[in-house]
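pinned: reference chain
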Amino acid sequence: MKKGSALIIVIIVVAALLLGAVLFYVLNNKNRTQAPQGQTNSLATNQPASTSDNGNQTNTNTVTIADMAFSPNSLTVKKGTTVTWTNNDSVVHTVTATDNSFESGNLASGKSFSRTFNTVGTFSYKCTLHPSMTGTVTVTE
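pinned: its C-alpha cells
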C-alpha cells in the first residue's frame, strides 16, 4: 500500500468517527427529558419544609441536576431530612461530599440519589466528573 492511500484511509476513518460523535451528541440532546415545570419529586412531599439560600421557605427537599448545575445549589433543611438529587441532564453526574461522607456513584440521566442528614452542619458537595458543579446542604436543629 502506498503512503498516499494509507493517508486517505486514515482521513476517511477520522471523518467517520467525527461524524459518529456529532450524530451521537445531536441525538442525545434531542432526547433530553426534564420533569414538567411545577412537578415535585414524590419522595419529598412529606418532608419538613426547607429554606433556600435567599431565606425563602420551600416545600421541597429535592435538588435537580440540569444544564451542568445543581439547582438549588444551596439548601437549608432540618436535622433528619432526606434530600434527593435527580439527574435531569443528558450526561452522567455524581453527588459527592467534599469530606467523602456521602457518594452517589455515577447517576445516569433520570436517576436519583437520596441522603438523610442526621447531623447538624454544612455539607459541601460536587460532581466529581464536573468539579465546577458544587453545592451545599446546611442542616439545622
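why pinned: Residues 33 and 88 are 7 Å apart (CA to CA). Residues 30-59 have pLDDT under 50 and may be disordered.
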